[in-house]
Write a structure and sequence with these properties.
- The longest helix is centred in the N-terminal third of the chain and has 15 residues, at about 1-15.
- It is built from 4 helices and 6 strands; from the N terminus they run H-H-H-E-E-E-H-E-E-E.
- It has a 5-stranded mixed β-barrel with strand order 1-2-3-5-4.
- By secondary structure, it is α+β, with helices and mostly antiparallel strands.
- Strand 4 (about 95-100) and strand 5 (about 105-115) form a beta hairpin.
- It is globular and about 65 Å long.
- It has helices at about 1-15, 20, 25-30, 75-80, and strands spanning about 30-45, 55-60, 65-70, 95-100, 105-115, 120.
- It has one domain: Nucleic acid-binding proteins (OB fold (Dihydrolipoamide Acetyltransferase, E2P), Beta Barrel), CATH 2.40.50.140.
Length: about 140
């Protein structure tokens, strides 16, 4: 019976670690050699773990509107720096700097978000180049 109990506990421990296995590093998903600066309008923001996400409509070179997903740091990190959902409501025109996804999708890892009044908010994920907030 002890062996069966130990086996069940081991299985539970492994299953509880599964979300950690799914978390990838910056270098695995984004290309440091492809920095992007994009202007658009916020459509949605999600403060979810492990990373917050901002979605924005951006016009491509042909004038077609494309929705981009911007991965940001953890919600807790953003809130500690004064960045809340209320800071960036849907419909706000913004400029985002970050790095393109390696898979060619319309996803980027954001480093800085600039509001229309010139306010800059640090959005970087801990593994991103330049992950320290602007001074």
């Amino acid at each position: 019976m002890r062996i069966a109990t130990a086996g069940v506990l081991m299985l539970l421990a492994l299953l509880s670690a599964a979300p950690v296995w799914a978390h990838h590093s910056f270098a695995a998903e984004y290309d440091v050699n492809k920095p992007l600066t994009m202007k658009g309008t916020i459509t949605k923001i999600e403060f979810v773990n492990p990373h917050a996400w901002l979605y924005m409509d951006v016009k491509d070179s042909n004038g077609k509107v494309v929705n981009w997903a911007v991965e940001m740091g953890t919600p807790n990190m953003l809130i500690r720096r004064g960045f809340t959902k209320a800071s960036v409501p849907a419909g706000t025109a913004i400029t985002v700097e970050g790095y393109a996804a390696k898979d060619g999708s319309t996803t980027l890892n954001g480093t800085t978000l600039k509001l229309p009044d010139g306010t800059q908010l640090f959005t970087g994920s801990p593994g991103a180049p330049g992950a320290e907030p602007p001074k």
